[in-house]
């Protein structure tokens, strides 16, 4: 089984590195190189969009920061390739942190607007800082040097491929670790994550910084690939293309990121050639029609749901023979194809294939995940660390707690004292304040008045994650499951506080 799992990646690497040896055409080598560079960025963007559930419209700006960092280091300091790439990663990650710290305090459309504004500001700064970036004239690059040798198009392609594999392995290890589970839990239930010790804000920032670093690496590689960078390259249209690539390829999937990168690079080129577009549109119509027929026969779809994609693909094939030029229609056709994919393949192409073939991968198997549980001794010692309270002394002391919502007093002058080793219950009718008291004790609500002390320390105003890490955990009346994770992974999120490993430990971990 292990040999078979290694066979596919080995064959893929062989095909990737052997491509320029078989295809001696610089245009196609450059196209595949661009796909690899975009895929590196999409690996990171998928962490933010696919795992934590945030919408970022600023990744084109981060991509540009990486490109211009490499360009400035090359032109101003004659920095070697590896130093320029490292500079692009570090500088972009720092900008990502500066953006994430204030931006991730908001969610939904507000976050999208903040990141969009960031991308616009970056484009303006690049255009205006002429002494550093050469303004609208852009920066012209030369072939990079590595180990004393000037890289050719072919050798630079191999450098990009090596870094693509490194980025893939790094992201894969992160997402299969407790960090990846924390990111995924944020999307499933932020409240439950916080109450299990996974700080929603902190881990969103972690995810964004990692994503920004990968965007910086991609941007630096892109600068050397194109040999010319200008402010207009890193615009709003590009960031929308990146988001579409994640959605169309399939979120929470490295294969989906690779596929999405290929789509946004190849599809616009495809729509430039009317003859090639005719062949592809006919093949697509046949594939969609046959696929819809199979799904209907198997009971996985209905005629009503299948009608629009079938009719749409056939109409697209007919239109391809009516058109004599793609110049005036390429953007409209691209938008139509994107709309159909996003609407009918909400899990992306990879998700659609998995659902069709019954392949529902969750990264590690439950047995593999169970093997990564912290030793029971560590878990126990962590859970009682710092608990020096002697028997019969209050472990939790809540005095004169008032929780007021406007003119409604949900809790009024409540006292609760819990001693170590005792069991307590709150009993009362609906609306008596039981859930409100639990929310106050676990930091979801901050009491209007009163004190709450745990192990001799006030926890009023502390975050839910801080309180959970201190030793107060809770469950929910309305069960807050992480719906896209397995049962064991749900349990492992609850053990998040027992892990003491950092990002470097995750990258060095075996398995």
In brief, what are we looking at here?
With 511 residues, the chain is an alpha+beta fold. It has helices at 2-22, 26-51, 59-77, 81-103, 108-128, 130-133, 153-175, 178-188, 190-195, 200-226, 236-249, 254-270, 274-297, 303-322, 330-344, 348-357, 366-371, 376-383, 434-441, 464-470, 487-494, 503-508, and strands at 139-140, 145-146, 149-150, 228-229, 394-405, 408-419, 449-454, 457-458.
What would you note in describing this structure?
- The chain has 511 residues and is α+β, with helices and mostly antiparallel strands.
- Among the domains are: 7-270, ABC transporter involved in vitamin B12 uptake, BtuC, CATH 1.10.3470; 274-357.
- It is built from 22 helices and eight strands.
- It has helices at residues 2-22, 26-51, 59-77, 81-103, 108-128, 130-133, 153-175, 178-188, 190-195, 200-226, 236-249, 254-270, 274-297, 303-322, 330-344, 348-357, 366-371, 376-383, 434-441, 464-470, 487-494, 503-508; strands spanning 139-140, 145-146, 149-150, 228-229, 394-405, 408-419, 449-454, 457-458.
- The protein has a four-stranded antiparallel sheet, with helices on one face.
- A hairpin with a 2-residue loop joins β5 (394-405) and β6.
- α2 packs antiparallel against α10 and α2 packs across α11.
- It is globular, with a radius of gyration of 27 Å.
Ordered list of secondary-structure elements with their pairings:
Elements: H1 2-22, H2 26-51, H3 59-77, H4 81-103, H5 108-128, H6 130-133, E1 139-140, E2 145-146, E3 149-150, H7 153-175, H8 178-188, H9 190-195, H10 200-226, E4 228-229, H11 236-249, H12 254-270, H13 274-297, H14 303-322, H15 330-344, H16 348-357, H17 366-371, H18 376-383, E5 394-405, E6 408-419, H19 434-441, E7 449-454, E8 457-458, H20 464-470, H21 487-494, H22 503-508
Antiparallel strand pairs: 1-4, 2-3, 5-6, 5-7, 7-8
Helix pairs in contact: 1-7, 2-7, 2-8, 2-10, 2-11, 2-12, 3-4, 3-5, 3-10, 4-10, 8-10, 8-21, 11-12, 11-16, 13-14
């Amino acid at each position: 089984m292990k040999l078979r799992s290694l066979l596919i990646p080995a064959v893929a690497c062989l095909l990737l590195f052997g491509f320029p040896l078989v295809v001696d055409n610089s245009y196609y080598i450059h196209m595949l190189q661009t796909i690899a560079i975009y895929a590196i960025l999409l690996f990171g963007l998928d962490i933010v969009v696919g795992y934590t559930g945030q919408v970022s419209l600023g990744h084109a700006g981060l991509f540009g920061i990486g490109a211009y960092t490499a360009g400035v280091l090359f032109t101003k300091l004659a920095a070697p390739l590896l130093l320029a790439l490292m500079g692009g990663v570090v500088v972009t990650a720092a900008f990502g942190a500066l953006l994430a710290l204030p931006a991730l305090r908001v969610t939904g459309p507000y976050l999208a607007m903040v990141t969009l504004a960031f991308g616009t500001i970056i484009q303006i700064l690049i255009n205006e800082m002429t002494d550093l970036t050469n303004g609208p004239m852009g920066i012209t690059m030369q072939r990079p040097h590595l180990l004393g040798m000037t890289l050719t198009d072919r050798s630079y392609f191999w450098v990009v491929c090596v870094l693509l594999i490194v980025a893939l392995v790094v992201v894969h290890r992160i997402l299969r670790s407790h960090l990846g589970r924390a990111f995924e839990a944020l999307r499933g239930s932020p409240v439950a994550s916080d109450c299990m010790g996974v700080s929603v804000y902190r881990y969103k920032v972690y995810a964004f910084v990692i994503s920004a670093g990968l965007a910086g690496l991609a941007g630096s590689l892109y600068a050397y690939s194109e040999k010319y960078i200008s402010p207009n390259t890193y615009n709003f249209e590009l960031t929308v293309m990146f988001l579409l690539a994640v959605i169309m390829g399939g979120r929470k999937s490295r294969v989906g990121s690779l596929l999405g990168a290929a789509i946004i690079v190849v599809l616009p080129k495809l729509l430039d050639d009317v003859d090639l577009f005719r062949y592809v549109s006919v093949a697509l119509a046949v594939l969609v029609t046959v696929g819809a027929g199979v799904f209907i026969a198997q009971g996985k779809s209905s005629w009503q749901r299948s009608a629009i994609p079938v009719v749409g693909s056939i109409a697209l094939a007919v239109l391809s023979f009516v058109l004599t030029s793609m110049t005036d229609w390429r953007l409209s056709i691209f938008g139509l194809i994107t709309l159909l994919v996003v609407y009918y393949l909400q899990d992306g192409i990879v998700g659609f294939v998995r659902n069709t073939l019954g392949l529902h991968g969750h990264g590690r198997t439950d047995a593999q995940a169970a093997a990564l549980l912290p030793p029971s001794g560590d878990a126990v010692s962590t859970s009682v660390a710092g608990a020096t309270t002697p028997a019969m002394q209050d472990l939790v002391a809540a005095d004169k707690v008032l929780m007021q919502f406007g003119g409604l007093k949900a809790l009024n002058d409540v006292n609760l004292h819990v001693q170590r080793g005792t069991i307590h219950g709150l009993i009362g009718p609906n609306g008596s304040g039981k859930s409100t008291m639990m929310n106050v004790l676990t930091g979801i609500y901050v009491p209007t008045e009163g004190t709450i002390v745990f192990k001799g320390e006030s926890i009023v105003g502390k975050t839910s994650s801080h309180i959970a890490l201190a030793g107060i955990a809770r469950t929910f009346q309305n069960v807050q499951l992480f719906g896209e994770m397995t049962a064991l992974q749900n349990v492992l999120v609850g053990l998040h506080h027992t892990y003491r490993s950092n990002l470097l430990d995750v990258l060095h971990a075996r398995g």
